[in-house]
Amino acid sequence: MKSFYLIFVGFIGLSVGSFINAFTWRYYLKNITDLRHFFKKPVDKKDLSIVSGRSMCPNCQHKLAYFDLIPLLSWTLLKGKCRYCHSRISIQYPLVEIFSAAVSVVYLLFWPSISNTRQLMSFILIILIVYGLISLLVFDFKWYILPSNIIYFLFFLGIFYVTLNISKINIASLILSTIIGGGLFYFLHIFSSGKWIGGGDVRLGFLLGFILGNFSLAIMLIFLASLIGSVFSILLISLRRVSIKSSIPFGPFLIISFMIVQLFGKTILIWAKNHYLIV
Ligand SMILES: [Zn+2]
Question: Are 184 and 222 in contact (CB under 8 A)?
């Protein structure tokens, strides 16, 4: 039975990934007044509506049929090219779909327990928050932005999530966790007048700290995000893909670290305690 749920959640993840690809692109274009830079032919703003817009090829602007939009399968069968104009379709599309499918399956596999309604609601809320975070990851990776409206919406979901689990949460630890999550970034943001770290990262840090709700996990989040970020940056610099002066978005490292810490943080802490690394 469990494998049925895993496959089901995997398919949902694929479809949500496909939605995230379309959503982020339309949300980004929504705020741009002059679309001539993006499209050769004039485009009707209605076609870019997040709710009712039809998907189209960004190059030839041909409207896509349902069989062009099957997650993963369409891209693979078309060998990453538009059916109509044969221009390349970004590898982002299948990657985001695979990533959200994989994250969904891993969350279901490692989520502590889903045995009553409250726990099920809790899991649904967290998976919705995680999907929101994946869209933020795409925004930051592609355009170096973390839209505040999306972060505030996830805070709103987060309040429900924390309320559902309030019996298991130490309030002092929750407050500390939130402060640790965004506080250091806030300080760096103010100190560097926004040059080292953007305001979006500060808001994201507060959000993630709040949802973790545990100050040890919040410390682990900051440590892990900085570690992965540094290793990745050093790797890119040594491969000469970027120069030392380039800026690299930090949001994706925070988001990936959040997922690792939320699912495996407590196990890591217990392991560390048993090995006397923490007194
Ligand atoms: Zn095309």
Answer: yes
DSSP string, 173-186: HHHHHHHHHHHHHH
Find the 173 Cα to ligand 1 centroid distance in Å: 52
Rounded to whole angstroms, the Cα distance separating 16 from 175 reads: 32
The verdict on residue 104 lying in a domain is no
Please state, rounded to an integer, the average pLDDT across all residues of the chain: 92
pTM equals: 0.93
- The band of 47, judged by pLDDT with boundaries at 50, 70 and 90, is confident
pLDDT in tens, 246-261: 778 999 999 999 999 9
Ligand 1 centroid distance, CA of 64 (Å): 9
Domain range for 179: 113-274
H helices of the chain, where?
2-30, 73-77, 92-110, 117-143, 148-164, 171-191, 199-212, 215-238, 251-274
Q: Which residues have CB atoms below 5 A from the ion given as ligand 1? A: 57, 59-60, 82, 84-85
Residue 99 lies in a domain: no
